[in-house]
Structure formats: structure tokens, C-alpha cells
Amino acid sequence: MERAIFALNDMDYGDFAEAEVITDNLASELRSALIPKKSDPFRTYTPTLFEVLEVLKNKYNLSDDAVESGYTLKKFLHDTYEFDDETIEFLRESAEYLVVELSSFLGQNYHVT
Fold it and tell me: What local confidence, expressed as pLDDT, does residue 80 receive?
């Protein structure tokens, strides 16, 4: 999971394909580590990061701000393939906040660059 969190922190926010792969990988890692298979609501499809974060909010009290950051990433990644500088900065800030929130939630100390 550490690698997936670092990848989110280091991703190229202007590259849609890379950003989508990285958020999908983080969703998969969080799902595997924290959502038991027998109670997994996503048995029939692969969830987005936002969907996994919503389950973690309900199950483990992940912060609303972390879920909102996940939603922001989802919304912008699916709305456009090219990002202007302002959008890239907004995505970077959302991802950085999510790294901090997930680090705290998981009891780890990941450095945001």
C-alpha cells in the first residue's frame, strides 16, 4: 500500500492515463487491505478510489475531507483528458491532502513532496 500512496503523491497530474492508473491501484490496495472479502460491496466490479474511500468512511470513520479529495480526483479525471495549470494545481493539492489523510488514517508517516 505504501507504494500506491507514494505513487499518488508523485504522479504527473497532467497525464490522465497515469493519474487514472495510480488512483485505480490505490483503490485496489485499500480495498484488499481494509475491506473483508465477505463484506465487500464491490464483488461484481472494480470500484473507483472515491467509492472505496466512501466505504472506509462508513466502516472506519475516514474523514469527510479525504472522501471529498477522492471525489475531486475522480471528477476531474473523468471530465477531461487535458488539464490546465490551475486544474493541475488543484488536483495536486487534493492528492497531497489525501496522502496526508490516508497516512494519518493508516498510522503511517508518508512525506508529501
Answer: 59
Percent of the chain topping pLDDT 70: 91
How many other C-beta atoms can be found within 10 angstroms of the C-beta atom of residue 75? 12
pTM over the 0.85 mark: no
Name, in order, each residue with C-beta under 8 angstroms of 85's C-beta and a sequence gap of 6 or more.
Answer: none
Q: Go through 25-35 and write b for each residue having 16 or more CB atoms within 10 A of its CB, e for each that does not.
A: bbbbbbbeebb
Q: Let me know: does 39 contact 59? Beta carbons within 8 Å.
A: no
Among residues 6, 2, 1, 18, the alpha carbon closest in space to that of 73 is found at: 18
Give CA–CA dist 3/88, Å, rounded. Answer: 22
Confidence bin at 89 (pLDDT 50/70/90):
confident
Amino acid identity of residue 66, one-letter, is A
